[in-house]
Amino acid sequence: MTYSVQFGDLWPSIRVSLLSEQKYGALVNNFAAGDRVSAELEQLKARDFVNEAVFHREPEPENSQTAAPSPASWACSPNLRCFTFTRGDVSRFPPARLGSLGLMDYYLMDAASLLPVLALGLQPGDTVLDLCAAPGGKTLALLQTGCCRNLAANDLSTSRTSRLQRVLHSYVPQDVRDKNRVRVTSWDGRKWGELEGDTYDRVLVDVPCTTDRHSLHEEENSIFQRSRKKERQMLPVLQVQLLAAGLLATKPGGHIVYSTCSLSHLQNEYVVQGAIELLDNQYSIKVQVEDLTHFRKLFMNTFSFFPSCQVGELVIPNLMANFGPMYFCKMCRMT
């Protein structure tokens, strides 16, 4: 009922897509034999949607009326290769396997999950915080960029951080984990502003949410069950607290991406606006939302985007491109 109001005529299409088989992307493990893996994926008729978008983007017309976006707002995090099957192709990737170096070849994930990492725009030598890191796909992608001087990967749940550790061990060599100073913790992310304020160049805040697609197929413990109503209603409060902590942990001039895998604007735009107001009122810290229009245009061939977000971008499931939902919003901490 809620989503039919929020999405109007788009809702029946989104709903049937959520109930249909999800589409995946294969994130190439650069620490394995990445070029060989890419060649094998190309033989399956999959395409690297990241490099297609970044290297084949059309130049803006010179007499364009719109001002060119600042490079910081659309520069994608580098060195990421993720293969998907083209629109309408519902082929599946074979399970990832161990390569010759004893590391897994690729990581299967919802390809839309890579967009928050791409939008974060990592630069070589960045100190990076992944505040809600488990199960580990986005953390792995952050490491694949080769940009992290330090990476703090945190998740409150110790069982989930155990899973994160297993992903890192399966995909990332020990010396890289040491060299990148990867630190895995299980702290309360809401307190991060007090623990390490003004510390990080780039922060990813991929918060706990209603995980709409997963919850739809979860019989046992779905967050939409009546018994979990209170927990569900309190989610936006938790999300604002986590985003505020992430913003406080960011250096002035640093960038933050907030993301969820929910369709709900209460967990998406409203949380962003709430956290920005909270930082302004309680800490006199100014935060600016970055315009991702240019970024969205890069990836419109692969994903379906909701056309009317107030802030940020939302990938909506579509039968021809059944990724998402994935909301992400990029911010810059100004002061």
From TrEMBL:
GO biological process per UniProt: methylation
Q: What name appears for this protein in its UniProt entry?
A: 5-cytosine rRNA methyltransferase NSUN4
Which PROSITE patterns does the protein's record reference? SAM_MT_RSMB_NOP (PS51686)
UniProt similarity note: Belongs to the class I-like SAM-binding methyltransferase superfamily. RsmB/NOP family.
* The organism's taxonomic lineage, starting at the top: Eukaryota, Metazoa, Chordata, Craniata, Vertebrata
Q: Where does the record place the SAM-dependent MTase RsmB/NOP-type domain?
A: 30-334
Q: Name one GO molecular function term.
A: methyltransferase activity
Q: Does the keyword section mention Manganese? A: no
Q: Does the keyword Glycoprotein apply?
A: no
Q: Which residues cross the membrane?
A: none
Residues that coordinate or bind S-adenosyl-L-methionine: 132-138, 155, 188, 206
Q: Where does this polypeptide localize? A: Mitochondrion
Q: Where is the active site?
A: 261 (nucleophile)
Q: Which reaction does it catalyse?
A: a cytidine in mRNA + S-adenosyl-L-methionine = a 5-methylcytidine in mRNA + S-adenosyl-L-homocysteine + H(+); a cytidine in rRNA + S-adenosyl-L-methionine = a 5-methylcytidine in rRNA + S-adenosyl-L-homocysteine + H(+)
Organism per entry = Bos indicus (Zebu)
Keywords for the protein's UniProt record, in alphabetical order: Methyltransferase, Mitochondrion, RNA-binding, rRNA processing, S-adenosyl-L-methionine, Transferase, Transit peptide
Q: Name one Pfam family in it.
A: Methyltr_RsmB-F
Output the PANTHER family linked to this UniProt entry.
Answer: 5-METHYLCYTOSINE RRNA METHYLTRANSFERASE NSUN4, NCL1 YEAST -RELATED NOL1/NOP2/FMU SUN DOMAIN-CONTAINING
